[in-house]
Write a sequence for this structure.
């Protein structure tokens, strides 16, 4: 296999995707796991429910793994048939890795929300469903990260293997990745609000709708990031632009 | 179907001689939610006086306590844990005990007869607990004797004498050495009269003056040295062990005999006791219900909520059991009344009511979103999971639940129906997306899946476009429902600023997006009216909320883009399943060990993906309903209708009231 600069950059991008998102997922799962252990100690029958809540922040890690595998496969690093990967594609892969990796740190917020969810569900089995809905809110940032990553891969020809774009496009893709990646950290704030929303809803079930509104406010910043990421793609001619 | 059931406030009056009859009849019918006339200001309370608490309520409570005490003693005496997986998955509904209508006095006499035969259980339980405490003490003493076995010391020498105190201890060697040093350094006149080391453990006997006992024990505690406990005995440890073994055998035989006697009592009286317990609990509820009523000198007045369609049946029932000596009036609720909510959905839609309830019941006169949210929830779930094999597994799980636990639990039955419908939709979606445990067909069998319309991994942009179109449609459905509600309530200001504004903005926004991204160039005939309408819409939003209205635009955009999760979850399901398949391929080989490893990787990986993605698809689908859809038109907060109804778990009334 020829290890061109482009290929090496793709490999680094895959590493960023799975590595950084694993940090977020690891911390998130850890936070939820600590609460789960406490709840299970009080009531061992809650083990199953606690495990479900603890599994929620794993998703960001899975998105990271998914993108890493897709990067490695689509560029032939995995599965053979590696073509000569241009630098533009390598740089785009870096942007893809940054997008999914940093937005995966939203799992920390999801872990905070899930820990509230498991604590409330430990006392009241009927609160499980609402707790899950609140806990899933901070995953939106990771979903936006995944979306930008897929768009970048699609527009730069990684799914088709037709590479025609110049290196400058790759640098711009890194900008796109940074926009959605760092905006994804708003998921931590959202997780804090969602956790409080779970507690508030457990105290008064009728406030669920209003608590959800408080919790989704933090998503505004992720939308800003997504908007800029898409506008960058548009500006450099990837997204139907000039 | 689109609104909760219409309710009416009922006022029922009967002569006091019919009070118990009307209570029992309404209780068995379960069609009225009784209002406590005295909890709040009622229209009729000023003309009535409160019912007094009668002595039979306390008597009923006493009777119930007597039965409960014996049932507590007998609880768990028979092991009723399932013996096979089949019993866990397919539990049989317990047969119900037939009972006939009885007066309270008759129930009390039955209670007397049953408990006189069963109350020996109380004494047996007391004896059993004393025996079990004794067995526990003897087992501890035996354990101490085993520790002291290496030492030639008589148990009679342990404990306190006139001047001395002898304490047996045991500890790991290191801790014992530290403890022994601490005892020496303390300057007290204590003496280690015997010690033995077994491996890393040391057992010793310490003698000290009686006055030093507490100080020595403190040192031992500080050094984490275990003081051995025992019952007063005499003889060398080996003799004590033999003596205790014989005694323990006798005690356990006695314990077993007592448990057998309890089981005999349970066999004889368990069912009658449970039946009495339920009958007395029902009687108590009926007696307490009287405190909610109002009274005149000879009339009892009941106030409550009844479904409008049940009002006639309720009146007929009251007239029939009182021989026509009842008056009933029914009135539609006023504006400010806290009307209880009953869903009004057809049978096929009822399982999905739990989704709406999970968020919050609708208010009276508010749209019940179940009809709209049920199909969308299923479609989103199917799109996000998008795997035919996973869908089939979900259908199978649903079938097992419905025919198993679903037969004894209505909520499990509802959930099983949701699972079956979701699974079936996922099979269809999986076929259309070509997902069969990821790419198992082309990867392992070289077969290209037929009937594929779109695959998220191969055509992510097209899938995203579909997701966003679905988003626009659902958000607008929410706006239409909100507009309809505002129109019904004649809240025109809200209608104009919160719904009409968005209907005006969207065409202009669509034209702008098409032009901005170069997807098309609408002519002036479309562009100018669209932009003009959008400007009016923006003005309507900003005029209502000022600059804060700008957040409404980002909020709307966020709601719309949130539907991108349909693509993300579909990608994750297919992508992770594909990754598992690749890993399986990489691990597999001609070697049998590698083949087993490959099978393990495949089974564990696919199971993990199935569980996680099913959970994810369901929760994210719920989120789209609760946040993006409900947020447009639905508030909820309705109070559940809790009818005055008999809860018969183990009995069945024969012959009616």
């Amino acid at each position: 296999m020829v290890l061109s600069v482009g290929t090496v950059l793709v490999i680094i991008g895959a590493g960023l995707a799975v590595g950084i998102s694993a940090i977020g997922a690891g911390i998130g799962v850890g936070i939820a796991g600590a609460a789960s252990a406490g709840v299970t100690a009080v009531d061992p029958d809650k083990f199953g429910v606690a495990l479900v809540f603890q599994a929620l922040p794993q998703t960001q890690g899975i998105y990271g793994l998914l993108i890493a595998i897709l990067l490695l496969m689509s560029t032939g690093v995995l599965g053979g048939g590696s073509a000569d990967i241009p630098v533009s594609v390598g740089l785009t892969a870096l942007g893809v890795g940054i997008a999914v990796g940093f937005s995966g740190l939203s799992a920390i917020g999801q872990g905070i929300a899930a820990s509230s969810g498991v604590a409330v569900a430990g006392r009241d089995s009927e609160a499980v469903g609402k707790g899950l809905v609140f806990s899933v809110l901070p995953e939106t940032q990771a979903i936006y990260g995944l979306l930008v990553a897929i768009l970048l891969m699609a527009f730069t020809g990684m799914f088709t293997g037709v590479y025609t774009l110049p290196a400058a496009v790759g640098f711009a893709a890194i900008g796109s990745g940074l926009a959605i990646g760092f905006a994804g950290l708003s998921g931590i704030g959202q997780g804090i609000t969602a956790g409080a929303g779970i507690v508030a809803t457990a105290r008064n079930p009728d406030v669920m709708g209003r608590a959800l509104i408080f919790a989704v406010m933090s998503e505004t910043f992720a939308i800003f990031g997504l908007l800029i990421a898409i506008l960058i793609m548009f500006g450099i001619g990837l997204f139907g632009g000039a | 179907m689109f609104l909760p059931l219409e309710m009416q406030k009922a006022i029922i009056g009967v002569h006091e001689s019919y009070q118990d009859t009307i209570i029992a009849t309404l209780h068995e019918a379960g069609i009225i939610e009784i209002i406590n006339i005295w909890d709040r200001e009622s229209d009729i309370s000023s003309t009535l006086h409160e019912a007094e608490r009668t002595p039979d309520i306390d008597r009923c409570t006493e009777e119930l306590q007597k039965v409960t005490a014996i049932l507590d003693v007998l609880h768990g005496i028979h092991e009723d844990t399932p013996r096979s997986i089949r019993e866990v998955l397919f539990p049989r509904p317990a047969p119900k005990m037939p009972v006939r209508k009885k007066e309270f006095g008759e129930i009390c006499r039955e209670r007397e007869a049953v408990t006189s035969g069963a109350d020996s259980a109380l004494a047996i339980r007391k004896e059993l607990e004393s025996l079990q405490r004794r067995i526990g003490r003897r087992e501890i003493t035996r354990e101490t004797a085993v520790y002291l076995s290496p030492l030639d010391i008589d148990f009679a020498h342990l404990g306190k004498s006139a001047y001395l105190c002898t304490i047996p201890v045991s500890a790991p060697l290191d801790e014992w050495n530290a403890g022994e040093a601490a005892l020496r350094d303390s300057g007290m006149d204590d003496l280690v009269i015997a010690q033995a080391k077994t491996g890393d453990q040391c057992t010793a006997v310490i003698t000290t003056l009686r006055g030093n006992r507490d100080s020595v024990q403190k040192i031992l505690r500080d050094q984490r040295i275990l003081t051995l406990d025992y019952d007063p005995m005499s003889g060398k440890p080996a003799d004590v062990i033999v003596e205790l073994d014989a005694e323990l055998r006798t005690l356990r035989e006695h314990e077993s005999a007592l448990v057998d006697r309890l089981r005999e009592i349970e066999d004889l009286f368990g069912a009658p006791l449970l039946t009495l317990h339920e009958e007395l609990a029902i009687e108590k509820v009926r007696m307490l219900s009287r405190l909610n009523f109002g009274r005149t000198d000879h009339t009892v007045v009941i106030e409550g909520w009844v479904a409008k369609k049940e009002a006639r049946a309720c009146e007929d029932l009251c007239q029939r059991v009182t021989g026509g000596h009842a008056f009933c009036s029914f009135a539609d609720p006023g504006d400010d009344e806290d009307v209880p909510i009953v869903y009004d959905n057809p049978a096929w839609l009822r399982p999905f009511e739990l989704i709406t309830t999970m968020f919050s019941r609708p208010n009276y006169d508010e749209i019940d979103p179940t009809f709209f949210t049920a199909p969308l929830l299923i479609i989103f779930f199917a799109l996000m999971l998008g795997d035919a094999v996973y869908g089939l597994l979900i259908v199978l799980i649903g079938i097992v639940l419905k025919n198993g636990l679903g037969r004894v639990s209505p909520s499990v039955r509802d959930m099983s129906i949701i699972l079956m419908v979701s699974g079936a939709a996922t099979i269809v979606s999986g076929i259309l997306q070509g997902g069969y445990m990821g790419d198992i067909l082309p990867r392992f069998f070289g077969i290209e899946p037929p009937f594929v319309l779109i695959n998220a991994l191969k055509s992510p942009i097209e899938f995203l476009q579909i997701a966003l179109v679905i988003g626009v449609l659902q958000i607008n459905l929410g706006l239409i429902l909100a507009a309809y509600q505002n129109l019904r309530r004649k809240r025109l200001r809200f209608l104009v600023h919160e719904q009409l504004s968005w209907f005006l903005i969207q065409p202009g926004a669509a034209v702008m997006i098409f032009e901005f991204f170069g997807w098309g160039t609408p002519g002036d005939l479309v562009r100018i009216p669209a932009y003009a309408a959008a400007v009016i819409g923006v003005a309507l939003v900003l005029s209502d909320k000022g600059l804060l209205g700008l957040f409404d635009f980002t909020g709307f955009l966020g709601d719309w883009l949130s539907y991108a999760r349909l693509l993300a979850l579909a990608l994750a399901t297919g992508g992770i399943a594909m990754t598992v398949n690749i890993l399986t391929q990489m691990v597999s080989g001609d070697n049998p060990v590698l083949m087993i490893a490959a099978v393990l990787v495949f089974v564990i990986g696919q199971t993990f993906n199935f569980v996680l993605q099913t959970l994810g698809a369901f929760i994210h689908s719920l989120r789209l309903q609760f946040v993006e859809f409900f947020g447009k038109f639905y508030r909820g907060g309705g109070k559940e209708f809790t009818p005055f109804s008999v809860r018969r778990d183990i009995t069945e009334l024969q012959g009616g009231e």
